[in-house]
Amino acid sequence: GGGGGGGRGGDRNGLEVDMLPRLQRATLRATFEYLAGVDLPTAAAVDGGDTSRPRRPAGVWEDPNPNPNPKPAGVWEDEYLAAATDLRALIPARARSVWMLSDWAYALSPVGRLERARIREARRLPELALRAAVPGSPLDHLRRGPAHSRRRRGWSGSIFCRFWGSFRLRSRDPLLDEATTLLFAGHDTQSATLSWALLRLAGDPAAQRELRASLTDDPAAMESLGTRDVAGAAKKTNAKKTNVQPAWWRTSAGAPVLEACLRETLRLHPVAPFVARKLTSDAVVASAGDDDVGALTLPAGCAVGVWLHAVHRDPTVWVDPDSFVPSRWLVADSATSEPRRSHVGATSE
C-alpha cells in the first residue's frame, strides 16, 4: 500500500511536511500521463468529467461538445484517492473476516455495498484516461491490441458488446478493468517507494549531498562524479541555447546515483515482499551444510513462494545488508565490468 514509510519531511526551519499525500498526487498524475499520453489537467479540462458520454475513438481528442463546467484536476484526484484509500482497508478486511465465505452474503452486507460504491468511484479516473488516451499511448495500444480490439470480435460481437455495455452495472469492461489495475497499482507502488526513499535519505545527509550534486546541470560537477558522457551531452545541449530542454537526468542512464538510491530503496523495502512462481524445471534447494545431504528437489510445475524481503537482506549476498548503501549499485561487477543490476534474486522492480 501507499502508506509505507510515512514520508514526513522537514524544511530548513524545522517545519514538518507530510509528504505522502504530495507523493500520491505526483505519482497519480505521472501514471495517468504515462498511460493516457496526456496530462490530467488537460484531460480534465477537455473532458469535463461527464462519465455518461461515450468514449471517444482513439485519435479524436477535441470534444465537439465540451462541458462548460469541467471538473478540476484536483477534484478528480481527491475523489480517486479517497476511494483508493478506503479500498486499501476494505479489500484486505474481507479476507480476514467471515464474509469471505460467501460472495452473495458479502455483496448484501453494508461493507460489501460500501466496497462496490468505492470501486465505482475509483473507476471514474481510469474511464477519463481511456476517453483521453491519445494515439500511441499505452492505453491506446491496449485498446487496439488483440485482447480488446473490436476487429477481433467481428460485427456480431461488436453489436452484442455495444448492447450489453449499456447495462453498466451488470457488465464488466475488460479494458476498463485493465486501466483501473494499471492506474491503481502504478501510482500506489510509486508513492510507497518514494516515501521510503525520502525516509532513508532523511537519515543519510551524505547520500543526500551526493544525490543532489549528481542532479546538477553543471557539466564540471557531472565530470567529477564520473559521468563524462552525460557531461558531454549536457555541453552540447547548453550550446544549442534553446528555450526549453528536458533535464538530462530524466533517463536512468543519465542519473546513475538517483537510480542507485531507488534500487537500494527497493532492496530494503520491496513493493511486493512476496512473489509466487511456477517452476519450469526441477530446482534443488541446497541444505545448510556443505554436502548434499538433506537437499530438497522441487519438481517442475510446482508453485514456489519467494520471500524477497529475506532474499534482499541475505548476508551471504549483500555486504552490510540492513544498511542503506546506494553506492553498492554503482560498483562494477567483477565478472562483467558493468554496474550491478537487479533481478528476481536481488531486488523486486
TrEMBL record:
Entry-linked Pfam families: p450 (PF00067)
Entry coiled-coil feature ranges: none
Signal peptide positions (record): none
Entries under InterPro entries matching the protein: Cyt_P450, Cyt_P450_E_grp-I, Cyt_P450_sf, Cytochrome_P450_monoxygenase
Region (Disordered): 43-73
Domain of life the protein comes from: Eukaryota
Molecular functions per Gene Ontology: heme binding; iron ion binding; monooxygenase activity; oxidoreductase activity, acting on paired donors, with incorporation or reduction of molecular oxygen
PANTHER family, per database record: CYTOCHROME P450, CYTOCHROME P450 12A4, MITOCHONDRIAL-RELATED
Record-stated family: Belongs to the cytochrome P450 family.
Name this protein carries in UniProt: Cytochrome P450
Source organism per UniProt: Micromonas pusilla (Picoplanktonic green alga)
